[in-house]
Design goal:
The structure holds 2 protein chains of 2 kinds. Chain A has 2 domains: 63-367, no CATH class; 368-426, no CATH class. In chain A, 21% of the residues lie in helices and 38% in strands. Chain A is built from 9 helices and 21 strands. In chain A, the strands form 2 sheets. In chain A, strands 3, 4, 6, 7, 9, 10, 12, 14, 16, 18 and 20 form an 11-stranded mixed sheet that branches. In chain A, strands 2-1-5-8-11-13-15-17-19-21 form a 10-stranded mixed sheet. The longest helix of chain A is centred in the last third of the chain and has 17 residues, at 383-399. Chain A is globular. Chain B is an alpha/beta fold. Chain B has one domain. Chain B has helices at residues 2-17, 38-47, 52-66, 106-115, 121-127, 156-162, 169-175, 177-183, 194-202, 443-451, 456-472, 477-487, and strands at residues 29-31, 90-92, 140-146, 149-153, 165-168, 207-211, 220-226, 237-242, 247-255, 263-265, 268-273, 278-286, 298-308, 314-321, 326-329, 332-335, 341-350, 355-358, 361-364, 370-380, 384-393, 401-411, 416-425, 431-439. A 10-stranded mixed sheet of chain B has the order 4-3-7-9-12-14-17-20-22-24, covered by helices on one side. In chain B, strands 13-15-18-21-19-16 form a 6-stranded parallel barrel. In chain B, strands 1-2 form a two-stranded antiparallel sheet. In chain B, a hairpin with a 2-residue loop joins strand 3 and strand 4. In chain B, helix 2 packs antiparallel against helix 3 (52-66). Chain B is globular and about 70 Å long. The chains are: A alpha/beta, B alpha/beta. At the A-B interface, strand 20 and strand 21 of A face strand 22, strand 23 and strand 24 of B. Chain B: One of its GO terms (biological process) is iron-sulfur cluster assembly. Chain B: Residues 160-217 form the SUF system FeS cluster assembly SufBD N-terminal domain. Chain B: This is Fe-S cluster assembly protein SufB. Chain B: InterPro entries: Fe-S_cluster_assembly_SufBD (IPR055346), SUF_FeS_clus_asmbl_SufB (IPR010231), SUF_FeS_clus_asmbl_SufBD_core (IPR000825), SUF_FeS_clus_asmbl_SufBD_sf (IPR037284), SufBD_N (IPR045595).
């Protein structure tokens, strides 16, 4: 019914054509939530620093069935060429949000399912929880569902999402799920890459079982015209570990939003990240870490390097519920501004209802340290190199938090490819 | 944990049971009917014998207010306020003739005596304890606000000799219209926010301070606010203008009678500092916080803002917030002048069902501007306390520097402490540092003190006192004494 589209507020109208065709109870619930709230504006507190203007004014079409095979292959090859170990990893490849079996390479040890084969939306992302999740729920086409049985050490897998933008505005809304049974372990490398203009709106529903360990590194290398707004929900059981890191480099507008919930005692979560942006890029790292049980630990370090007219956003909330005694939370956000026109907006937030806790956060913003530059210059290092060394060192401390060695090597290789040799030419 | 229990008890005492300023004074009141409309505003303006421009300003603010909605972003919850169910004007009965202490209603004077407001010079001096080694301190000038009309002002003569104007703002509107017109609403515009607009429309009184060029105000200025009479909102308006090279220290302290009905308080304070000027504004806020169940208590929605207009000017806010059921207060500095300095030191204590959402905004506009924020929060009972602050560095504020430290201490497991800093930088040559911690009194600290022979009670007192020390030491001496009493966390014998 077109009746819905006429009432859709703001940028939601860009999806009206697609939203009117949705079927199924969950999708309808999502549509209902969207019709009430619309897509967030800067008046919405959680989106205070990030506007959705970058979505443009053209209506979004669904990705076309089939894709340009040569173009996808070339893009994939380019991504794989970043580091030798990336090419050897097991990988699931999606093109415009849909599984591309011919590009994928999955070992038998891993149970891989796909959303379009058995659409389940998981339990964490209620449609009215967040508008962009509701949008995903209404429009989800496909997605990768990884599950590891109890006790299985499943190794490492790369989930590579390629976006191929064309002349027409196109959006895709993959719905991923990762589930680890008790004592299982898995390392996931999510790579977002693409070219041209597109809107990527993934939602990932993660469950880490008791004493299970999930390492999750997200490499956001979206195309420079792309808008990428991703949401991750992670629920961590007792003694479980969700160790995540996000590296944000691409996109005209990118937001990486993580909601991690420590559901039972002695769970551990890392929500680390780094972004390096230039031009007119906007990069947003938002997280909500909920301590819902006692004796849990959360750690977060996010570093931003902003050049040109780039704008970095960090919003990190640590919520400690009344039951979560003996909580240990630490959060640090640091930004380096390299250009007079760069901007950082940070909002580290503590919301604490338990008294026996140790929670702290810190934030720093500044330019390169003159003293450090002088130190290097006085030892004969040219200014441009000295600056590069300091920037590398600043980011390297964040990259060092990637606990998966392969993933860390890949992150470093990408930084080197994009921003020059360490200590070399800028 | 007996020590913690005792601390909790001490904090509880501070809240309500021994609220020693809980009494009401029966004085005949001249009161406007309930409700808010243009007629009421005209009535207020007429009663205050205001010039036409003031009335127009109020009416414009009222029109703005009507189009505004009450903000909901703060982490406080309270039943909806019926703005039509309040009295917007109440004045103690006025006697004809010049105001002198002898002519002031004796009942009123007794109230002040009970409050300990040192209207008389002797009482004032007697009330001030001198630390060892210090021989004398300059006296304090008091402008007492009883509900809405300032009824007595002391030390005016000394101040006049120095060229300082210190008077109720209603008098300033009549006697110094050029100054009031120039500066009123220049820092907090009438339409700045919902509560500021309401204040602009209906403010009844407050203080006006003008310190001329090069004058160091010869004494500390002090206004004691006291809410009296049922259902009267208090809408003070304070304006302090300090000219080039001048300086002033202003003390604001508040107590209110105990009662059941919620009372609304929406004050606006505006500070203007020119080149090399400095303003120190200190507050001890101890309004009735409501009973254990959260009944009654003051709703305190305050807009305080200072503009550092001149180069090297300085504005320093210090506050000790222990009262009110709801506190909504963000004393801010707009750092326009090159090299200007903004400071914010705050201790906020909440207990029982109190809710406090308080913090500051530091807006760095000029080059080499500096700001410091130290906020200490103590939550007990079932209260919620939030630090909410903004540090914004505009593109031209090269060399700007900010340091922020927010610490929260939780006492008991039913309270909440929250920290919501907003940090926005648009200048690469600015440096911002922010740190925040939340903790309870650690076993280690207690053990360390106990090991050295302190009782647990003393140890807790010592630790809590140390926790707030960075802020308390910023208070003027007269206030530091009161503030420590207010914090009242068994310090006997522990700190010298």
């Amino acid at each position: 019914m077109n009746a819905i589209s006429t009432t859709m507020p703001g940028p939601l109208a860009l999806f009206a054509d697609r939203l009117n065709g949705v079927a199924g109870a969950e999708r309808h619930a999502a549509l209902g939530a969207l019709a009430r709230t619309g897509l967030p504006s800067r008046r919405t507190e959680a989106w205070k620093y990030t506007a959705l203007r970058a979505l443009g004014t053209a209506s979004f079409a669904a990705p076309a069935a089939g894709y340009d095979t040569a173009r996808a292959q070339a893009l994939l090859d380019h991504v794989l060429a970043t580091h030798e170990s990336l090419a050897t990893l097991a990988r699931v490849v999606l093109v415009n949000g849909t599984h591309a079996p011919e590009l994928s390479h999955v070992p038998d040890t891993l149970q891989v399912g796909f959303f379009n084969q058995s659409p389940t939306f998981g339990v964490q992302a209620a449609p009215d929880r967040d508008p962009l999740v509701a949008l995903n729920t209404a429009l989800a086409e496909d997605g990768v569902m990884l599950s590891v049985a109890a006790g299985v050490k499943a190794g490492q897998v790369a989930v590579i999402s390629l976006g191929l933008g064309g002349e027409q505005a196109m959006s895709y809304h993959p719905r991923h799920a990762i589930s680890l049974g008790a004592g299982a372990s898995l390392s996931v490398l999510s790579v977002h890459a693409g070219e041209g203009a597109y809107f990527h709106n993934p939602v990932t529903d993660i469950h880490v079982g008791e004493s299970a360990e999930l390492r999750h590194v997200t490499l956001q290398l979206e195309g420079v015209e792309a808008v990428s707004l991703g949401t991750v929900y992670a629920d961590i059981a007792g003694h479980g570990v969700y160790d995540s890191f996000a590296l944000g480099l691409g996109g005209a507008l990118a937001r990486h939003e993580v909601h991690a919930r420590l559901a039972a005692p002695h769970a551990l979560v890392h929500v680390n990240g780094a972004q390096r942006l230039g031009g007119r890029q906007v990069g947003d790292m938002t997280s909500v870490i909920t301590h819902a049980a006692s004796d849990c630990v959360s750690r977060q370090t996010v570093r931003n390097v902003l050049d040109g007219h780039a704008r970095g956003v960090f919003q990190g909330k640590v919520l400690v519920e009344r039951v979560a005694q003996k909580t240990d939370g630490y959060q640090m956000n640091q930004a380096l501004l390299l250009s007079p026109d760069a901007e950082i907006d940070a909002k580290p937030e503590l919301e604490i209802y338990a008294d026996d806790v140790k929670c702290s956060h810190g934030a720093t913003v500044g330019a390169l340290d003159d003293d450090q530059l002088f130190y290097l210059r006085s030892r004969g290092v040219p200014e441009i190199q000295a600056r590069q060394i300091l920037i590398d060192a600043f980011l390297d401390e964040a990259l060092a938090l990637v606990t998966d060695e392969t993933a860390q090597d890949i992150c470093r290789a990408i930084m080197t490819e994009r921003f020059g040799q360490k200590g070399g030419q800028a | 944990m007996p020590a913690v229990t005792e601390t909790r008890e001490a904090v509880e005492k501070l809240g309500q049971s021994t609220y020693k300023w809980g009494f009401e004074t029966e004085i005949e009141m001249d009161m406007a009917p309930k409700g808010l409309n243009e007629d009421i505003i005209r009535l207020i303006s007429t009663r205050k014998e205001e010039p036409e421009w003031m009335l127009e300003w109020r009416l414009a603010a009222f029109a703005t207010w009507q189009a505004m909605r009450e903000p909901t972003w703060a982490k406080v919850s309270y039943p909806p306020i019926d703005y039509q169910d309040l009295h917007y004007y109440a004045a103690p009965r006025r006697k004809p003739g010049p105001k002198s202490l002898e002519e002031v209603d004796p009942e009123l004077l007794r109230t002040y005596e009970k409050l300990g407001i040192p209207l008389h010079e002797q009482a004032l001096l007697a009330g001030v304890e001198l630390p060892e080694g210090e021989t004398a301190r300059p006296p304090v000038a008091v402008d007492a606000v009883f509900d809405s009309v300032s009824v007595a002002t002391t030390f005016r003569k000394t101040l006049e000799e120095a060229g300082v104007i210190f008077c109720p703002i209603s008098e300033a509107v009549k006697d110094h219209p050029e100054l009031v017109r120039k500066y009123l609403g220049s820092v907090v515009p009438a339409g700045d926010n919902f509560f500021a607009a309401l204040n602009s429309a209906v403010f009844t009184d407050g203080s006006f301070v003008y310190v001329p060029k090069g004058v160091r105000c010869p004494m500390e200025l002090s206004t004691y606010f006291r809410i009296n009479a049922r259902n009267t909102g208090q809408f003070e308006r304070t304006l302090i203008v300090v000219e080039e090279g001048a300086s002033v220290s202003y003390l604001e302290g508040c107590t209110a009678p105990m009662r059941d009905e919620n009372q609304l308080h929406a004050a606006v304070v505006e500070l203007v500092a020119m080149d090399d000027a400095s303003i120190k504004y200190s507050t001890v806020q101890n309004w009735y916080p409501g009973d254990e169940e959260g009944r009654g208590g003051i709703y305190n929605f305050v807009t305080k803002r200072g503009a550092c207009r001149g180069a090297r000017s300085k504005i320093s806010w210090t506050q000790v917030e222990t009262g009110s059921a709801i506190t909504w207060k963000y004393p801010s500095c707009i750092l326009q002048g090159e090299g200007s300095v903004g400071e914010f030191y705050s201790v906020a204590v909440t207990n029982n069902c109190q809710q406090a959402d308080t913090g500051t905004k530091m807006i760095h506009i000029g080059r080499n501007t500096r700001s410091t924020i130290i906020a200490k929060t103590i939550s007990a009972g079932r209260s919620d306390s939030t630090y909410r602050g903004l540090v914004r560095v505009q593109p031209k504020a090269s060399g700007a520097r900010n340091f922020t430290q927010c610490d929260s201490l939780l006492i008991g497991d039913q309270c909440g402490a929250h920290t919501v800093p907003y940090i926005e930088s648009r200048n690469m040559a600015a440096r911002i540092e922010h740190e925040a911690t939340t903790s309870k009194i650690s076993e280690d600290q207690l053990f360390y003190c106990r090991q050295r022979g302190l009782s647990e009670e003393d140890a807790v007192g010592l630790i809590v006192n140390g926790f707030c020390r960075d802020v308390l030491k910023e208070l003027p001496m007269e206030f530091a004494v009161e503030a420590q009493k207010l914090l009242q966390i068994s310090l006997e014998g522990s700190v010298g």
